[in-house]
Design goal:
Elements (H helix, E strand, L loop, with lengths): L1 E5 L17 H4 L4 H13 L4 E5 L8 H16 L3 E4 L8 H5 L2 H6 L15 E4 L4 E5 L18 H16 L3 E5 L12 H4 L9 H10 L4 E4 L5 E8 L2 E8 L14 E8 L2 E9 L4
Parallel strand pairs: 1-2, 2-3, 5-6, 6-7, 7-9
Antiparallel strand pairs: 1-10, 4-5, 8-9, 10-11
Length: 278
């Protein structure tokens, strides 16, 4: 199957800022038009399922979630969408208290009136491929210093889901927001950034070592990279999609989406779709 992947939309209305610790210039770093263009290209390229790995919003405002839901609606209405939250989607106590991400967007883009956590969530995207989505987004009084965390219960349930789908002959892809590891060589604008890591990344790395996992998809870092980790069936690719809306000059920071060809044997190809100027 052909799987689409994008991340870190950071949708916002510039006129509503400053608020929640952000200024209007923070909105200028992202362009929704770039994401719209990438979504059209993913569809034209034959992606049959779309994974969005978090940070749909800049600071978890209700209008921002509504805008994200509208952008992703064509995929959600066809049942071809898997979404996980990012740290910016739980940026404020109010966003968490009102369960905005789950109510407006949710794990499948359709939202829910009963916002009980659906993660980990397994989706049989095709007879050959399953996606297991994880929630690593955690609220903290100091958002810029709050790490992501999956938690023991979610990790154990994830293990069981991976085993179940692998037993049925499917390649399993994990999707979450936070990065597990960073590449040894980092671009200058990202080299000094060490905030908001995944607190229990070591547990997920161990899972990759123990179980057959075809790939891990994430976002969080606004630069694209790939790291291969030792896996139960050989090297397991861990792929960061960067940001689908980022307005930047550095090549690895430019807005992009990814196409993956996957079958029962695992990840067969990776193709980047880089957006041109907005």
């Amino acid at each position: 199957m052909r799987l689409g992947h994008l991340s870190d939309l950071h949708l916002a209305d510039r006129r509503r800022y400053p608020r929640n610790g952000f200024a209007p210039r923070d909105c200028d770093r992202h362009s929704a038009a770039l994401a719209q263009r990438l979504l059209k290209e993913l569809a034209a390229a034959g992606a049959v399922h779309l994974v969005v790995t978090g940070d749909l919003t800049l600071s978890g405002e209700a209008a921002e979630f509504e805008r994200a839901a509208a952008l992703l609606r064509p995929w959600g209405e066809r049942g071809r969408l898997t979404v996980v939250p990012g740290n910016h989607d739980v940026w404020t106590a109010e966003a968490v208290r009102t369960a905005r991400f789950l109510r407006v967007v949710g794990a499948d883009g359709r939202g829910t009136r009963r916002p009980a956590t659906p993660y980990p969530r397994a989706v049989a995207a095709s007879p050959e491929v399953a996606i297991v989505a994880l929630d690593s987004a955690r609220f903290g009084e100091e958002p810029l210093a709050t790490p992501g965390r999956i938690g023991a219960a979610q990790l154990q349930a994830c293990r069981e889901l991976v085993r179940e789908h692998a037993k049925e002959g499917r390649a399993v892809v994990l999707a979450l927001h936070h990065h597990l590891v960073l590449p040894p060589e980092r671009i200058p604008s990202d080299a000094a950034v060490a905030r908001m890591p995944l607190a229990d990344a070591d547990q997920l790395v161990r899972m990759i070592h123990d179980l057959r996992i075809a790939a891990v998809l994430h976002g969080h870092r606004h630069c694209a990279f790939r790291v291969d980790l030792p896996g139960a069936a050989g090297p397991t690719p861990v792929l960061c999609a960067g940001s689908a809306t980022r307005v930047a000059d550095e090549p690895v920071r430019r807005a992009r989406a990814y196409l993956y060809d996957i079958d029962r044997g695992g990840l067969r190809s990776v193709q980047a779709i880089v957006a041109g100027p907005r």
